[in-house]
Amino acid sequence: MDQLARFRLADRPARLEAAAVLLTYATLSAVWLLGVQGPQIPYHYWQLLPAGALRQDLWRALADLHAQPPLLNFVFGALLHTADATGIAPETLVAIVQVPLGAVAVLALWALSWRLLPRPALRRAVLALIVLNPFIYASFSHLFYTGYELTFLALTALGALRYFDAPTPRRLAGLLAPALLLVSMRALFHPIWLLLLVVFALHAAGAQRIRQRRGLLAVALLAAMLACAWPAKNLMRFGFFGSSSWTGYNLARGLPVRSPVLSAVFDRNAQTPPDPRWRALAESAVPRWARNSPALADIAKEDGSPNWNHASVLPASQLLGEQAVQALRARPGRLWRRARNYYLTGFSTFEGRNPYTGELGWDVARPDPPHAAAWSQLYETVVLQRFAAGRPTQGPRATTGFAFLFPLLLLAPAALLLRRRGRWSAQERTVAWMGFCTVWVTVLILTVDGMEGNRMRYPVEPFVFLMAAWALDGWLARRSPPPAATCEAGRPPPTPQP
User: Fold this and answer.
1) Distance (Å, rounded) from C-alpha 302 to C-alpha 383?
2) Could you tell me if 463 and 157 are in contact, meaning their C-beta atoms sit under 8 angstroms apart?
3) Alpha-carbon span 466 to 473, nearest angstrom
């Protein structure tokens, strides 16, 4: 049998498995959108700018954005303008854009599993955990960060695997492009996170030819400059170098400090009007040049919900952050107690469960319907082993077996990486990068603002499953050789491209 025929035989199982995964995702997406919950735009979410400001002048609204990195609101504004131009409902456009994006994420995670997990049983178990989770369908039918985070993280890990196989400037660009999109989407992934990725990638390149090294350094320098572009814009326009003006507010959550302006004017729902006295103070904080900007000058959005990009949020959040630092310095034990609370009441619970109410579904006014709740409960019971009800008002306590299992799922691949130190291949380096991403997200959730830690944890959850299965595969490989079905033609299986 010639080499080409052998390669085609080796590739056929991969294509069949990828097709099965995509078919499952497509079928369950249709079930979710048609039978559970249609696509949604949560106009009242704090992270979204007023729709009127985006419709009036998209680029001015983004220039006036200080609360978040720009990509989510750029997508929101582009959907609104497309809807106005075509007559298609913005919610329909959400499904048109985001459901295929979910297919890209699923395909990228399958490609990772194909390379990292040669044992079909382990690989298919991990893929089942990913595509049978109802929260993936809720994420991609909902205009918010979560689906984009999942996609960009999966593409970053897949790009890392390709780059570590053969470091070239082009492959480094393919690795850093989704990482830059992630930095532009979510303040949780700070430019420092990307700079650490750059350092890790350059170190892994090792001894390259002079021309190759120059190309790698040029790509790395360009990525670093692009990652710092948004903080630099905020420095020039608003006087602070950072991705989000909410850092102080987030740091202060769970501590005995408060801002009367934020509490009385912005920390409310659309049905509760702001306190008139503190509203007047907030409006007086709007600088003269910003008074004709809806993104900075309007206290509320069109539906009455608060506009958390108001100009007064900047000084209020900064002051609140200073008070939070003082409170933690005075009693450092508060940081540990808050982290423990975040871990038990949020982080270690099912991502589809609202940590504030304990209900399934994030929409307080409209929880998941019974059939969707049954799906979520089944997944929650099997995967996260929920054994008790819980909510913050009941105090921090473990409610899932996942609370005890999660550290073990991280320690297993870490131990294998340590045992193989000094002889890492592309797979080990990719697993190390996925582990770093998981630890990064976990630490920031537990030390800054982790009340919604289960939702924030979800985008790295597939990494946890993949790494644990990879460690288990390594343990099994010491006792029996892995199946050779994915290694035909004397070469590792190709890395499929989503």
Assistant:
1) 41
2) yes
3) 10
pLDDT of residue 156: 97
Task: Evaluate if residue 357 carries a pLDDT over 60.
Answer: yes
Please check whether residue 310 is in contact with residue 278, taking contact to mean a CB–CB distance below 8 angstroms.
Answer: no
Task: Check: CB of residue 131 under 8 Å from CB of residue 28.
Answer: yes
State mean pLDDT over 140-160. Answer: 96
**Residues near 301 by beta carbon (within 8 Å), at least 6 away in sequence:** 43, 44, 50, 51, 52, 307
Which phi and psi angles does 353 have, rounded to 5°?
A: -105, 130
Return d(Cα 89, Cα 5) in angstroms, integer: 49
Q: Which structure tokens are listed for 286?
A: 């709007």
pLDDT in tens, 180-230: 999 999 999 999 999 999 999 998 887 566 567 889 999 999 999 999 999
CB 68 within 8 A of CB 187: yes
pLDDT at 366: 64
Distance CA(336)–CA(334), nearest Å, equals 5
SS3 for 360?
Answer: strand
Q: Which two tokens stand for residue 465?
A: 């499953």
Which of 148, 140, 106 lies closest to 38 in space, CA to CA?
140
Cα–Cα nearest to 312, from 275, 292, 287, 293: 287
498 with 25: CB under 8 angstroms? no
Helix, strand, or coil (residue 66): coil
Handedness of CA 144, 146, 150, 156 (dihedral sign): positive
| Beta strand segments in 19-156, E | none
Please state at what angle helix 90-116 crosses helix 145-165, rounded to 10 degrees: 30
SS3 (DSSP) at 306: strand
Distance in angstroms (rounded) separating the CA atoms of residues 398 and 73:
36
pLDDT tens for residues 10-25? 578 888 999 999 999 9
User: What's the confidence (pLDDT) of residue 364?
Assistant: 59
Alpha carbons 433 and 109: distance in angstroms, whole number: 15
Q: What's the pTM?
A: 0.92
The rounded distance, in Å, linking the Cα atoms of 156 and 430 is 10
Phi, then psi, of 352 in degrees rounded to 5: -90, 5
Residue 82's SS3 state is helix
Who contacts 444 (Cβ-Cβ below 8 Å, separation ≥6)?
188
The first and second tokens of residue 394, run together, are 């009941």
Considering only CA atoms, which of 155, 149, 144 is closest in space to residue 73? 144
Who has greater pLDDT, 392 or 313? 313
